[in-house]
Amino acid sequence: MSTSIETRYASSPQEAKSWDTAQARQALLITPLFEADAVRLVYSHYDRFITGGVMPVKKAVKLETVDPLKAGYFLERRELGIINTGGAGTVTVDGEVFSINFKEALYIGKGKKEVIFASKDAAAPALFYINSTPAHMNYPTRHITRKEADVVVLGAQETSNHRTINKLLVNAVLPTCQLQMGMTELKPGNTWNTMPAHTHDRRMEVYFYFEVPQGQSVCHFWGQPQETRHIWMQNNEAVISPPWSIHSGAGTSNYTFIWGMAGENLDYGDMDHCAIPDLR
C-alpha cells in the first residue's frame, strides 16, 4: 500500500502555551510531505482536514482509502484539492486524464472512486500537494489554471509584503463544499506574508511553504494574538493553524506558499484582524 497517514489531535490555546519547541513542531509541523512513489497524509482533528503530498517517480500512484476514514474509497464522503508544485504531471479521475502543470490546480468532488497520480518525466517528478475535507455534495471535477484564478495584488515594497494572491479553488472560481485553496507569491525582496495578521474562529487553515531557496528559511508565527509563538520551516513543509491562531510568516528570502482552509463558511474575507502594535 502506497498511502500512509498520521493523525494529529486538536489542542486548546491553554495547552499550547506550555509547549516547548519540540512539542509545537510535533503538533503543528508536517514534514516530510513527499516520498518517491507514495502518498503521505496527515489527518487533523481541526475540521477533519487532511494534508498530504504525492510524488510519483517510477510509477503511477493511486490514492487509496485509509483506516481513519472508515470508507470504501477515499472520496466517498470527501472532496479533494490538488496543486502541483513540481514537474508536469497527470491526475486520472475515474478514467478521465487531467494534465496538471506547475502551480495549476485540480478540484475533485465527492464520490469519485479512483484517483491516480503520475509524472510526465521521472527526472523532474510532479509534486502534488493535496488538501481534503468532508463534503456533503458532489461538485464537478475541474482543472484550474493560473489564468482562471481570482488574482489580487496586496502589500508594498516599503512594508516588505508585496505579494500576489492567486485564489484557485475558492467559491468565486468554482463551487466547493467547504474546501478553499490558493497560492501566495512573495515578490523579490519581500519577506512578510499575511501581515497584518488575523484569526478566523470559523475556519482552520494549513500553510505549505515552497520555493524557499536552499539555505534559507521561513519563520512561521502562530498562537493567539497576545500569545504568539514561532516555528522555523524549510522548503516543502506545511504547518497546521488552529482556528484560534494567527498564521503569518517572514522569510530570509522571498518564497511561495499555499493556503488551504475549511470550516463553517466559504467567505474568504471572514477574518478577525489583529493590529500590528497589538501583537505580543
Main attributes of the structure:
280 residues, mainly beta, Jelly Rolls, seven-stranded antiparallel beta sheet, 2 helices, globular
Written account of the structure:
This protein is mainly beta and 280 residues long. Helix content is 4%, strand content 44%. The chain has one domain (3-278): Jelly Rolls, CATH 2.60.120.10. The chain has helices at 13-16, 21-28, and strands at residues 3-8, 29-30, 39-44, 49-54, 61-62, 78-84, 89-93, 96-100, 105-108, 115-119, 128-134, 142-144, 150-154, 163-169, 180-186, 192-193, 198-199, 203-210, 218-224, 227-233, 237-241, 246-251, 256-263, 272-273. The strands form five sheets. Strands 1-3-4-11-6-9-12 form a seven-stranded mixed β-sheet, with no helix packed on it. The chain has a seven-stranded antiparallel β-sheet with strand order 2-21-18-23-15-14-13. It has a four-stranded antiparallel β-sheet with strand order 5-10-7-8, with no helix packed on it. The mean pLDDT is 97.
